[in-house]
Structures are given as C-alpha cells and as structure tokens.
C-alpha cells in the first residue's frame, strides 16, 4: 500500500473511531438494548475506538511530530548540497563565451533555450574558461564540465545518505541526474565537431541536451520544496 493510501485509511479509521465515541457517549448510551448483548458490543466498540484514538495521539506525540521536526532540521542543513548542485551549473554557464554578445551572464534558474543556444554557438570547445586548476591553467569547457560533474555526483551522494528523509520522487530525480553523463556528451561532441571540421567548432548543436539537463536540475528544486512540505 502506498504511503498516501495508508495515510488516507488511517485518517478514515481515526475519524470513524472519534465519531463513534461521540455518538456512543451522547446518544447510544441512553438507548435501551435492541438485541441481546447490545450493550456489551457497544462497550467493546467504544473501548476499541478509544484505544485507536489513544494510539493515534501517542503516535503523533512520540513519533510523527518529533520526526517532522528532525526532518525539517536535517533538510535545512542538507539544502546546502542542493545549493551547491545548482551553483555548479551557474559556474558552467558563467564560463561560456559571451564575447561580442549582447546577453547577460546566464543562470540555471532563468536561462532560456534560445539564449543558451546563442551563447553556446558562440563558445568554441577549446575556449579557456576563467576557472583555474591547481596548476593555474585555464580549463576548456569540456574540462570544466567534467570537474563540475564530479562535484555534482559528490553532493548527490551526500543527499542519498539520508534517503529516509527524501520522498520517492525526489530520490528518483537525484538518481536520474546522477546517471546522465554530461561530460561524455560534450567530450564526444568535441571529437565529432573536430572530425567534421564544423564551422567555428561551436557547441551550439548541444544546447538542447544541456538545456534538458538544466530542466532536470530545476525539477529537483521543485521536488525538494515539495519534500519540505510533506
């Protein structure tokens, strides 16, 4: 049984139990028996309903609310990993080639497919970014993507350690993002562009794949927000 169905069933049982307690206490208790053992059966159902209500209150106080508090506290601290994932794509977008373009630096939250296409078409695979390695050498776009991909995987791994606090949909989104090898896409693309001697050796033809990837990152944020509410 799915969690949603289980919660609905539990609410129905508790509501019926509460309703029976009220009806029995204020109405049925004063009505003469209509059949043999009617009083005993009514008392049995009353005690059963009372036990269900007591168990439900105990569950709320001992398990549900403390767990919700722990979940909110934990997710608040874990949100730094999601923010880091988002920032990796801002880093990639920031280091594309905007020279000679009348386009502001793109961010993962607000970039459009059209603007991304223009910027990537303006970016040569061998374009050196402003991001430096320990050797202080500039990275090509492919190398930068490879570095950021590893960083994203590390953040997702940290989130997966707390699977009990992640919804099924959020976990699936994280797994799907981790499974996509963005580095492989752009490395293979660079080789292909060089092989066919593409004009300007640009990345423009890969903008759709990159944009789809960014959409997946946005969906993770949406699922994260939903997870916080539930």
Description:
- The protein is 69% helix and 3% strand.
- It is built from seven helices and two strands.
- The chain has helices at residues 3-26, 38-94, 113-121, 141-160, 168-179, 182-195, 207-229, and strands spanning 128-132, 138-140.
- The chain has a two-stranded antiparallel sheet with strand order 1-2.
- A hairpin with a 5-residue loop joins strand 1 and strand 2.
- The longest helix has 57 residues, at 38-94.
Topology:
Layout: H1 3-26, H2 38-94, H3 113-121, E1 128-132, E2 138-140, H4 141-160, H5 168-179, H6 182-195, H7 207-229
Antiparallel strand pairs: 1-2
Q: Which stretches are poorly predicted, pLDDT < 50 over at least 5 residues?
A: none
Number of helices: 7
- Morphology call: rod-shaped
Give the class from helix and strand content and strand pairing: mainly alpha
Spatial gap, N to C terminus: 18 Å
Q: Using DSSP, what is the number of strands? A: 2
Largest sheet: 2 strands, antiparallel
Q: What is the average per-residue confidence, as pLDDT, rounded to a whole number?
A: 83
What is the helix fraction of residues, given as a range? Answer: 55-70%
Radius of gyration: 29 Å
The order of strands across the largest sheet is 1-2
The secondary-structure element order is HHHEEHHHH
